[in-house]
Amino acid sequence: MRNSTDTTMVAQNNKLKFFKIIAQILLYIICIFVAVMVLFPLLSLLLASTHSSTEIMQGFSFTIGNSFFDNWNNLMKELGKQDLSIIRSFFNSCIISFASTSLCIYFSSLTAYACHAYNFKGKAFFEKFILFLIIIPGQLGAVGFYALIVDMNLLDTYIPFIVPAICSASTVFFIRQYLRANFSTEFIDAARMDGASEFRIFNTICLPYIKPALATMALFGIISSWNSFMGPMMFLTEPQLYTLPQILYFLTSMQSIDYGAVYMGVLITILPMLLVYFFLSKTIMAGVSNGGLK
Amino acid sequence: MKTKGIKRYRNPSQRLDKWGYVFIAPFVLVFLVFSLYPMIYSIVLSFTNQNLTSSGAFENFIAIDNYRYIFSQRQFWQSFLNTVIIFAMNFIPQIVSALFFAVLFTNKRIRLRGKGFFQFVYFLPNILTATSVAALFLFLFGYIQTVDGIPRGGPFYQLLLWMGMSDKMRLFNEVWPTRIIIAFVQFWMWFGNSMIVYISGIKGISDEVFEAAEMDGASARVVFFHITLPILKPIMLYSLITSLIGGLQMFDIPFLMGSVKFKDGSGISGTLTITAYIYNFMKVNEDYSIASSASVILFLVSLSLSILMYFLFFKPKDYSKKVMKKVRKYAKLD
Fold first, then answer.
1. What is the DSSP string of B40-92?
2. Between 1.10.8.470, 3.40.1710.10, 3.10.180.10, 1.10.3720.10, what CATH number should domain A70-292 receive?
3. Mutate to test the interface with B, among A123, A139, A158 (most CBs of B within 10 A)
4. A59 touching B, CB under 8 A?
5. Closest approach of chain A CAs to the CA of B121, in angstroms?
6. Contact with chain A for residue B201, Cβ under 8 A
7. Taking residues A129-140, what's their average pLDDT?
8. Of B5, B52, B141, B287, which one has the fewest beta carbons inside 10 Å?
């Protein structure tokens, strides 16, 4: 009697174990399948950038070609015909990303610090207003913004991408939360006792203290302005001023396409972001989860 | 100098609080010039038929004629519909898979190796330039005109051929295939982001809740449907509404994949999104008043969604107690 229950239990246990292993394998297969789905396009991009246009037209292959530098030269030649240069566009994208992000994090910190350190009249309203600004969708002003830029004669300059970055409600909100959690106002009082001016306190005490929050916001700023497409399409018409996404748009809308050159262009556009992600993925993902629901 | 410092210290709040205004001044100034003024100007423009360069908005006041024109246009409604269709096709698989992986990667009973690696990979497409992603997929699914006449294309096109697709098919000339590809690319770029948001939501649930449920003998199914899902509900609603607002502004990928017209000769595009519709009125037709009327409509739609979100989320609720009650109830039933 006892023996028989033992054997059925063992059988049941074995069955359970077997089921568990099958489930485990199934889960691995799903995870790996999705990972391949994500990585395959990128892999094919890397491979294709080493093949010549005629090789690419022959069909996809898993081998590494030897036309990497030819593709680069072709890309330069194709773009050169239209007075475009991918190197110049690369630096244009860098300038816009760097300038807008620096302004954004500096002035957002300043605004957040004002809410943190001072009790000025109307502060409560101002803070509510910032929340409100995050919630309202931004597209309403698009046409008016374009009109303003035309009126101010700022078409074909980088001002429309850089200066408005000063007013970024979500960044202010994020830094404000960080200050509230980490930066005690006692620091400020102590610095005042030492005779430091208000700007000095902000620049030399507050800013270094909130570096982690700034780094996260800077990453987000750089990524979003590097990737932005509609703004440059609206405000930049001079080939010398084109950013990388505009170059890609130009490449894909060409009549006769050199596929190798296009893949090369795509690679150059995403490579900096891939590098950033490779080294700072933890920071980026932490930022997403912190900004996900606050 | 020294006395001044002491004076400040003795009476710090009133004396120094005016610095708050100095510090917020740049933000407010830029907001007034580059945000508020454009918004007001857009609204004014939407009731006129004036061009961008001419001045004197009130002479060209035409009341709601622009709106009447837009509402009578088939392309406008179609653009809205296109946007909603593409959004729905990417959001549903996105939320399901993000939820699946979030639960998989946070569940302590499931021992998977390489969770960190998978998260790293799944989030990766989110930081890539949408334009380059669009260009990439344009070639992966694209058809290539070759001299020898044998149908060839990108790897995904070849895969579809192998799976039995007709070689006469040009994916980017057909409305539905293009929509599906756009939705797939959006899904590809965003499911990792949702996954990370859900993971942080699940991690926010205190371990005690799960432990208590386990002690009460709740099965994995009960835990998922009666703890994880109810607690994630506000986060999921939040992500639904933010993605919907973001989805209404979808531009880069559909724009680059090209606008595919229906074959009925009406010239109506089946892949033009609402933002691309506005963009076309601005840059192609140079009709700014129509463009701003359309953006006012889009704004009102988004704003109603935002208000909905505000009332759903900015009221903190104590979910854990409610959820624990539920868990006890269901654990006993099982």
1. HHHHHHTTB---SSS--GGGGB-TTHHHHHHHH-HHHHHHHHHHHHHHHHHHH
2. 1.10.3720.10
3. A139
4. yes
5. 6
6. yes
7. 80
8. B5
